[in-house]
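Incident log, structure service

09:12 report received: a user says their structure output differs between two submissions of the same chain.
09:20 pulled the input from the user's history:
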Amino acid sequence: MTSKKRVFVAGHKGMVGSAIVRQLKQRADIELVLKSRHELDLTSQAGVDAFFAAESIDEVYLAAAKVGGIHANNVFPADFIYQNLAIQCNVIQSAHKHDVQRLLFLGSSCIYPKLAQQPMAESALLTGTLEPTNEPYAIAKIAGIKLCESYNRQFGRDYRSVMPTNLYGENDNFHPENSHVIPALMRRFHEAKLAGAAEVVVWGSGTPMREFLHVDDMAAASVYVMELGADSYQANTQPMLSHINVGTGEDCTIREMATTMAKVVGFEGSIVFDATKPDGAPRKLMNVSRLKDLGWNYKIGLEAGLAITYDWFLSNQDQFRK
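09:34 re-ran on a clean worker, output below:
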């Protein structure tokens, strides 16, 4: 009998990590190794090293990270840069030390310059100034990419990086103040529907363009990139440019997304845009031609993805009543 591949998913309770676990649980050839933050503190170098020494891990999906919205990034910049750097350094170094040959690091589209040419290609990395509000987090994610590249160059490892666009879906954060735009609006439209409200106010003019990817597509892409043969993967990357964008390659206005959200939730009132509130960047779209060339494309459209997410929200809304 062939032994199962032991795969460690770091951050398995988060939105992306849990989606990767759902993907891998369907595989008969994989044995998942999962540890909660109470069982394994990834910021502890000694603890992470002891874990890898004991567990004989074959592959790692590094989805663990400290994440938050604009407010949290502004108030706790030291926490965001330190904790993310610590997690990445500990996991990648211990994986190498204990002879894990393949690892997938999950980053963020915020690695790209604030004024990067649209759509943002992988080559835009380090070509301009970052968005100030989340610079510490972005710097940590860039360091994660460079850690993977450096272990590949010096030790011949096969450590890969994927950079997702804006994600949403099951296990998202639906906090009324600290969540991203899709979960925040979904909760707002839902509560307005229950209250019989005449309107829902959306911050900004509604004109900025944004790209959204359902987290199950992100998980599918992550597994796909991880399992590409080394020759196929390396032929599609360049030296010192080993990360790959993951997204739909399509975007819509915030107004279009809000209109679709209202339809999915069943809110029949008016949608009002408060143009006195900031819009943010006019457009943030990923160039995903590299991933398409590797043979992967997204499957879940925005309306279908919002419907899936809303069904999950309805089934789990007790945890959001805060």
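09:41 both user submissions now match this output. Likely a transient worker issue. Closing.
09:42 reviewer note: The first strand starts at residue 5 and ends at 10. Residues 5-320 form a domain with the Rossmann fold fold (CATH 3.40.50.720).
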